[in-house]
Specification:
The chain is mostly helical. It is built from 22 helices and six strands. About 65% of the residues lie in helices and about 5% in strands.
């Protein structure tokens, strides 16, 4: 929904919300998608949000809550009783979404809500899902699916599918299992439509299928869905039993959350925050990496202080300090970004050393090109051959070292189970700045004998 449309709806809602008029409010909202209504919530007071939820039917109000950011949803749920949450929200959601909502509640409130769920099977499915880590296949999967027994006839399968699909929003796949619920394959809609009603499912199902294990990481699930170009994937336990399935929208939510975290880490923000969080939370997330940057700058200042004599003898060296430091930081960030992207997409090929060799080769080519350009520029402008050589050799060395560091650090962090996105932020920039200045004056001392 565009901004002007949101403004228009907000103007139309002013009087109904002020007068707490359910009929007028519903007339304005009835043509809006639930995601649009959730977007409106960013612009109105909490009391008005609660009123809108109260006038919507349970299915729509639950869908609107699901579209909200976690913190906004939590504020609304705090104003609802356990019974209201169970009957008006949880009962209207599929098991995976219901488990996600419940996981955001305090433990005592969570148990109260579960005890208020009338559908025992639904409650059992939710409790089962809450046992799994949210970043695993078990934490992402939903329990609602359509499955048929290989020994059934087509006509019986259709009857059973109708019952199973009653409480599902969409049906994308039909799974075929044996008497012990072990997955055997999938059944296409075309097979159902074109096969005799007396034919057994065992004679028409497709035995080829891809699946994810219940303890696979969410990242592995996302990679598999992308690799096999699937809209959903079945989830199997250790015995090969079909226990659930994961749809593309579940994976997209995970990918978005991970992308936001990686972007914040790469920007030097150590916690998952957004602009609406408290000043204290924002400060806590940003300050650690800012302090690291300050420490790096202090180290650089000490290096410069130790080379005052060299700079006094050849002032020209001072002019190229920003260039050396900036190029070191940029090269390191570029190298680490490429490695982090490959690790995140799961398409890192070869050993650590082969990838390092590739980056060294690229560093040599880039370093030579930049050094030649810089030498020509400095010599033409200042006419000092040896100073020009010093600056260009320093730049070549800095580019090469930065490429090596930018490649190695993410790979080492990944092997140690640490998010490699950390390496693309202030850490890599600051470390390469310090090393760049150190190399610069080391080369200057060697060539210019100062």
């Amino acid at each position: 929904m565009s901004d002007w449309s949101i403004d228009k709806v907000l103007r139309e809602l002013e009087v109904p919300l002020e007068e707490r008029n359910p009929k007028m409010t519903l007339e304005i909202l009835e043509h809006l998608h639930n995601a649009d209504i959730a977007e409106l919530f960013d612009e109105i007071y909490l009391e008005d949000q609660l009123f809108i939820l109260s006038v919507l039917d349970n299915e729509d109000s639950a869908a609107v809550l699901l579209e909200l950011e976690e913190e906004d949803r939590r504020k609304l749920l705090q104003n609802l009783s356990s019974k209201q949450i169970a009957e008006e929200v949880i009962d209207e959601l599929e098991s995976d979404d219901a488990a996600d909502v419940l996981s955001e509640l305090e433990e005592d409130k969570k148990q109260e809500v579960i005890s208020e769920i009338l559908d025992e099977e639904h409650a059992k499915d939710i409790v089962d899902l809450l046992r799994y880590d949210e970043d695993t296949a078990g934490g992402l999967m939903g329990k609602e699916l359509v499955k048929v027994n290989a020994n059934w006839s087509v006509i019986r399968a259709v009857k059973e599918m109708r019952k199973q699909a009653e409480d599902m929003e969409e049906v994308y796949s039909i799974y075929v299992v044996d008497d012990h619920d072990k997955l055997l394959g999938t059944l296409s809609l075309k097979s159902l439509l074109t096969t005799s009603s007396r034919t057994q499912i065992a004679d028409v199902f497709n035995p080829k299928f891809h699946y994810v294990a219940i303890n696979d990481t969410a990242e592995d699930v996302a990679n598999d869905i992308q690799k096999y170009d699937r809209f959903e994937m079945p989830v199997l336990d250790e015995r090969g039993t079909l226990v659930g399935h994961i749809t593309m929208d579940d994976v997209l939510d995970f990918i978005r959350d991970e992308a936001e975290k990686d972007y914040q880490l790469a920007s030097g923000i150590s916690e998952d925050v957004d602009m609406h969080d408290s000043i204290w939370d924002l400060t806590k997330a940003r300050l650690p990496w800012l302090l690291i940057g300050v420490v790096g700058s202090l180290i650089s200042s000490r290096i410069l202080d130790g080379n005052l004599t060299a700079m006094n003898k050849i002032p020209m060296l001072i002019l190229f300090i920003p260039l050396i430091a900036a190029t070191a930081g940029n090269m390191g960030v570029q190298s680490s970004a490429i490695v982090v992207q490959a690790l995140a997409m799961g398409n890192m090929r070869g050993s650590m050393w082969s990838n390092l060799l590739r980056e060294i080769s690229m560093g040599i080519i880039s370093g030579v090109a930049l050094s030649v350009i810089l030498f020509g520029f400095s010599y033409i402008l200042y006419g000092d051959l040896w100073a020009g050589l010093t600056i260009s050799i320093s730049l070549f060395s800095v580019v090469l070292v930065a490429a090596i560091i930018g490649t190695l650090i993410p790979l080492i962090l990944e092997k140690r189970g640490i998010n490699p996105a950390i390496a693309t932020g202030p850490f890599i920039t600051t470390s390469n700045d310090v090393l760049g200045i150190s190399i610069y004056f080391l080369v200057a001392r060697m060539i210019l004998d100062i």
